[in-house]
Structures are given as C-alpha cells and as structure tokens.
Amino acid sequence: MEKAWYVVHTYSGYENKVKANLERRVASMAMEDQIFRVLVPMEEEYEYKDGKRKLTKKKVYPGYVLVEMIMTDDSWYVVRNTPGVTGFVGPGSKPIPLQQKEVEQILRQMGVDQPRPKLDFSIGEPVRVIRGPFENFSGIIEEINPERGKLKVLVSMFGRETPVELEYNQVEKY
Prior knowledge:
InterPro entries: KOW, NGN, NGN-like_dom, NGN_dom_sf, NusG-like, Rib_uL2_dom2, Transcrpt_antiterm_NusG, Transcrpt_antiterm_NusG_bac_CS
Keywords: Transcription, Transcription antitermination, Transcription regulation, Transcription termination
Helix content: 10-25%
Number of strands: 12
GO cellular component, one term: cytosol
Protein name: Transcription termination/antitermination protein NusG
Family: Belongs to the NusG family.
Shape: elongated
Distance between the termini: 58 Å
C-alpha cells in the first residue's frame, strides 16, 4: 500500500485542535510509519486597513484537515476516533484519496505563492484616491489585477474619464 492524502471533516473552528490532537495520537500510538503529515490548509493574504498593509492567515477549507497516510484499518481507526473528527470525505465509509494534482495545487496555495491581496473591490464600484498624484480624486473601478495588486480606475479629469492604474492601498471605497 502507498501513502496518499485524505480529507478529514472536522467541527468548524476545530481544525487546529484536531491537527494537534491527531499529531499527539500518532506519536502516542506509534503510528508514524502509517500517518505522516497533518495539514490545515491556510493561505496568507494581505489587506489594507487605515492605509497600512496587514498580513493575515485564512483557512482555505474551513472544517477540513488534510492527512497524508497509508490507509489501513489501524490508521483509519486512529484518525476517525480523534476528538473533533466527524469523518473522512468519500462515499459511505470508504475514504477516497486526493489526486496528486489537487494536492500540489493546495500545497502551492499554502506557501509557494506570494500572499495575495484581499479583494474588497469589485468592477463598477466607486472609489476615492487617498494617496499619490491623484489624491482626493474619485472614480469607478474598471479593471482589477489581483496578481499585481493593482486597479484600473476611471478618474474624471478635465471633463473626461481617464483610466489610471493604482495600487490597492491608494484607494478606499467611496
């Protein structure tokens, strides 16, 4: 049998407790050869409050924990009877492992990528420029580029709409 990643359903808000409990149980029951890693999928994002950039961690899948393990009756029993675990994800009582590309995507989302800005903006939304050369101008969001953390805003200058590229921290909701 080979190791694979399985998704475990938990009580909402108990993901980190389940992770700690499961890691303790694995150590105390000497299951390190069958249960390898326990992850609570998190991603970092930054948001702007009062003009300051703040880095926060957010659960990607609230209510779920990932477990890398070899599925045997013993390992299933250890995970399933951990406090806070409500069951494995899969039809009936048979857990289905995640596909490798799904695992890679989740792992990449957790740490390999740069923190992503929290999107509090939407296209067509009115905003006011709070810093930079266009300070105190107001406009409408025309385009959002989350990879670069930039917005294209239509600002009214000299009686016509002019597109201006601004960073998230240069504008606020109007």
